[in-house]
Please model this.
Amino acid sequence: HLLESGGGLVQPGGSLRLSCAASGFTFSNYAMTWLRQAPGKGLEWVSAISAGGGDSFYAGSVKGRFTISRDNSKNTLYVQMNSLRAEDTAVYYCAKNCGDGPGNYCPDYWGQGTLVTVSS
Amino acid sequence: DIVMTQSPGALSVSPGERATLSCRASQSVSSDLAWYQQRPGQAPRLLIYGVSTRATGIPARFSGSGSGTEFTLTISSLQSEDFAVYYCHQYYDWPLTFGQGTKVE
Model:
């Protein structure tokens, strides 16, 4: 089970931190991913982090503005989003990956998502 | 970035019919290719990973095939609950990317 929180309305240039509480699996064994979907649009991969947290990866559209992290002691995934833009408006999903390491970054279980709206 | 191109954009089929969805990668993604189903108002659900392995609980009417740059998702006999949007996804190289989706209606 994955439960996202932290979404809401934020002004352009503002910041927001999303959280994803995980349960029902051994969180520390799996890479995790953030994805998003703008209203009426397709899926966009945003960022991923390895099981141990030592490796992180970003889409070009968010690199330098978003930071993914995890706390394996709390079974929680985070994404810190800074310098938000109107085009960041989307439902943000966290997802557990198939495993860890190369070839295992396929999201297999997704949360229900949290809506982030960037508007003045 | 690897560009994933799905065709067609929309597919009109009747219950019981076969549906064939295509996905092309701009460069080889080896076997790191997945398919997702998204029903309206719901989160995506993993159907297929590793080109052809069905995820847990996915019915046998869903099958995946292909290699390298050309991939296919086949739904052998459409059920009412299969009318949805389907996305292919490469997890071979960073940044990971999705196709734009095929709506099965």
Q: What stands out?
A: Chain A touches chain B at residues 42-45, 48, 57-60, 93, 98, 103-113 (CB under 8 Å). Chain A has a mean pLDDT of 97.
